[in-house]
Each structure stands twice: as structure tokens, then as C-alpha cells.
Design goal:
Elements: H1 5-14, H2 24-37, H3 46-49, H4 58-68, H5 86-100, H6 109-115
Length: 117
């Protein structure tokens, strides 16, 4: 049985690794924002983050990052997947709220992409 990538992303994001000061989500956001602010980086990809997550959850994590910080759509470019269905988008909104405790700023990464071209 395959594990739901959104559930797996939630578990990973909420975990605080031994010795880490912050949960994985906060560490990921920090690394991504540093990469975003680097003018030499035109695209942020999972292998650039080197934070220790299973690459199978990157599609969910990349969309979750954009939901909270829409301007990241300038440098994070998800490929279309089943996460982009109506059900998938609703699940990502729920996941974002579960991880952060806040409502996302946008409900679909494509809306952010269209806004921040």
C-alpha cells in the first residue's frame, strides 16, 4: 500500500529532529527563503535544499511552501500532478493549516504563479 504523499509531508514537516532547534517545516522555510533571496538562483529545486526529506514528498512540500509564501512561485515550478485536482488542492490547504496553524495566503500554486510571473 502506498503512503499518501500529503500525509507523509505533514508527518515530516511536524517532526523535530533530535538536536534541531526547530521542526522540519521551519527549517525548510528558512532554507528556501535564503535560496529565494539569492539573486544567482533562478529556480529552487529539491536537491538544492539538502534538508533530509524523501524526494517523494517534494511535490507536496513545494506546493505547501507556495501556499504560504506565494512569491516563491517565481522560483519554485511544480509539475502538474494529482495534487492539482480539486481534491488534491483542498487536501493541501488542510495540510498547510495543520502544519502551520494558519490559513494559506493562496489556495492553489497556479494562482500564485499567475500573479508573480
Amino acid at each position: 500500500m502506498r503512503c499518501d504523499p500529503v500525509e507523509k509531508a505533514i508527518r515530516w514537516a511536524k517532526t523535530q529532529e533530535k538536536g534541531a532547534l526547530f521542526p522540519n517545516w521551519a527549517r525548510l522555510e528558512s532554507k528556501v527563503m535564503r535560496a529565494y533571496e539569492d539573486p544567482s538562483k533562478h529556480t529552487i529545486m529539491r536537491n538544492q535544499m539538502q534538508i533530509g526529506f524523501d524526494n517523494s514528498i517534494y511535490p507536496a512540500l513545494s506546493r505547501l511552501l507556495i501556499l504560504g509564501t506565494p512569491q516563491l512561485a517565481r522560483k519554485i515550478h511544480p509539475r502538474t500532478s494529482t495534487l492539482d485536482t480539486v481534491e488534491g488542492r483542498a487536501r493541501l490547504v488542510e495540510a498547510y493549516e495543520e502544519i502551520t496553524g494558519y490559513k494559506p495566503k493562496v489556495e492553489d500554486w497556479r494562482a500564485a504563479r499567475d500573479t508573480f510571473k
